[in-house]
Structure formats: structure tokens, C-alpha cells
Request: fold
Amino acid sequence: MGFYCIFVNYFASFFPHQMVKRKCSGSDTVCVCMCVYVCVCICVYVSTGSSMAAEGEEVTVSLVDVLEEDEELEQEASAVLAGSDSEKCSYPEGYVKRQALYACNTCTPKGGEAAGICLACSYKCHEGHELFELYTKRNFRCDCGNEKFGEMECRLFPEKEKTNCGNQYSHNFYGLYCTCERPYPDPEDEVADEMIQCVVCEDWLHGRHLGCVVPECVELQEMICESCMNKCPLLWTYAAHLAVPPTVKVCKEEEENARVEVEHDDENKTEVKKEGNEKVEVCEKVEVCENGTAGCKRKLQELEAEGSRCRFEEMKCSGKSRVQQGAVFWPAGWRSKLCSCQHCKSVFVEGGVSFLLDEMDTVLAYENKGKTTEQATVGETRDPLMSALNNLNHVQQLEIIHEYNDMKTELKDYLQRFAAEGKVVTPEDIRHFFEQQQSRKRRRADAGQFYCT
Reply:
């Protein structure tokens, strides 16, 4: 079983499946089970399409589909988790700019005080507990072991203050999301819908509850929900100039779910709605400054005279506006176009949204930082296969390579029959294959085998 152990332990570092993550420890059964998963991953011979079973049976998918989905989930998890330390409690770092957070429903259930824990504490202090994954939050300090947890102490950093007054909590910490106050995933929700995080309140909302049509390539954009837009009205002015133009769905008898694109004609101050090949002009009430356009110009001249150029006032004086309804989506780089003059900075601070002026506050910046850190760590980590091979002599190395090539070829030939006949590979089939392998192995005259110890 030594061959199995070495290759399982090597490929375990590349595949996220929990079965592979369990390193080989000497059990023949465990080694065989894990090795089949590894070898199937290596071969990846299986046809890429989904196969429909006979009527009345469940629909099955190919292994390639499973692997691709698993890889996508691993990449998403790495993007979120790589930027946080999985070994040390983040409490000593203070209010961390952005980190992966969890809430423990076992220790702080609904009805008590909301609390959040860091990634490391979710592993070390709350293993086996019911946890709510909160994705990432900004400016948060780990609560694990403080007075909200009763007599429980943090195993990683017990010397904590009673409370973290700078933390902000929401219904997310009780496993509830969106304006509908529902959990995610929601077992009672039969509608397939994505959830999008507001970059201001950091709540997650269903696409159908945003009050607008979700644009394409939404993963490349940031969203601010309507509630947060109304709490900081100056964002509506920026939205008219910087945000993704709104798209509205209109229900018609002859064409359901038709899209109406709203454009703004600055000269005539009208909305131009495109319905199919027709254009319909609708009068628009244009919002101007308190004293009209002339008042805006005077205020702009005063700021220029003081030596400060205000982008916000320039946008405001242009007279361009948009319907103040629904969530707003912002393209990449929009934060760099916000005005950062002293007056506007103070307005952002008073509105509690000063973080919008910081481009490194974005989730994308956090994820990129995590990816960079992970790549650097992987580069520094010694290849486990090379480490194993370096401890073997030349004859043993050749035997391992020979064993590997034989197993790969035989497994591929064995599974190819299932693909040719359109059959689903079952766990019993895999076990049968390895029973045959073991039987052949016992019949070999060569007794030079390696064993896991």
C-alpha cells in the first residue's frame, strides 16, 4: 500500500474533496478508497456531458462535471478565506479592515446578543457547532470568548475585552438575509435566484428583491441597495453619472419580460425609452440645486476661488439625474471617480460611508490580496511528491512510477467500458476494480513492496 499512500498524499494537496483531504495513515481500506478518487481525477477520461438515466431513475452527471463544480467552489472559498489567517485569532489586530467572518448559532442563538468570530476561531473554538457563514465584513473585531459567549473562552486568544463596541451587527449574524428576512439556503424557497451583497450595509439580497433588473456580469460590479442609497442621498447624484444605466422589465401582453432601456437626453431633459424598435419620450422632472442652476454655478465658482475643485458640485450642476428607485450597480473603478475634496470627505464621514473613498475596501481587492498570499505560500511549500521520492532509492522510485502507470492504464481501460455502454459507475464497481488489483498484487512473485507505517 506504500504506492497508494504516497500518491494519495501528493494529490490530496490539489483536490478539495474531503475524502482526499484525509491523508493516508496506513489503513488499506482508506488508502484504496482515496486512491480511486485520485486516480479517477488523474485520468479524467469520463465523457463531459450529463447522462440521463432511464425513465423513473435519477439524473446523473459525469465526474468531470463534479470536478469542475468542486474546483469552482474551491476557488471561491480560496478567494474568501485566503485573505484571513486560519491559525491565529484576528483579535490582536484590532478592527480588521476586511476579513472572513462567521456567527455561531450554537453559542449565540437568536434571542441573545449577536456576535461574530474570525476564521481561525471557527476552526479551533467552534468545531462541530452550527455556524452561519457571513462571507466578509469590514472593520470587525473577533468576539469569540467575550461576555456574549458566557463561560466559554477563546482557545486561541482568551485575553479579550468584554465587548467590541466598534463592531456593527445585522440580522445576518442570526442566519437571516435580505429584506425578506429569510435564511440562505432557504429550504422553502423554490425560486432559483442569486444573492448579491450591498457594499454599504453588507447585507445579502435576492436579485428579485432589489427593485431593479440585475445587469449582466454582475460579479464585476458593486451594488448599493435602495435603502442605503436613500440614507446617503448624495449617492444618487453620483449614480446619474457613474453607475450602470438602469434596465427595467415591462410586462406586455404580446411580449412578456420585455426590456426597456432608460437613457437620458441632457439637452431636452427627457427620458428616451426603447421598446423594441420604438422610442417613447417621457417628460422627466429634473432635479437641480436649491437655488437653480445659477446657484450651483455660484457655489462652484466659490469653491474654485478657494482653490478646491469639487467633482460632486460639477456633477450636481450638470442637471443630469436618474430615477431614484431600486438598487444601483456600479462598474469597476467607480470609487476612484468620487470627489475627495475636504468638504466631500466630511460629508462621507458624516454619512458613515467614508470607506467608499478607499478602493482597497472592496471585496475584489481583498480577494486579490488573498490570491497573491496563497500563490506565494504555494510557491514556498515544498512539493510533497518530490519530498517522498527524495527519500527513496532509485529502484524504489522506478517501481513507484511503474505502479502508477499500470494503475492509470488499467483504471482507464476498466472505466472506458462503462463510458462505451453509457453506464453509471457505482462505488461497488470501483471497489471491484481495486479488489482485482489487490488480487493481482498478491499473486506477484515480486515481494518488494512498500507499506505505510
Observations:
- Confidence is low (pLDDT under 50) at residues 1-34, 40-55, 253-292.
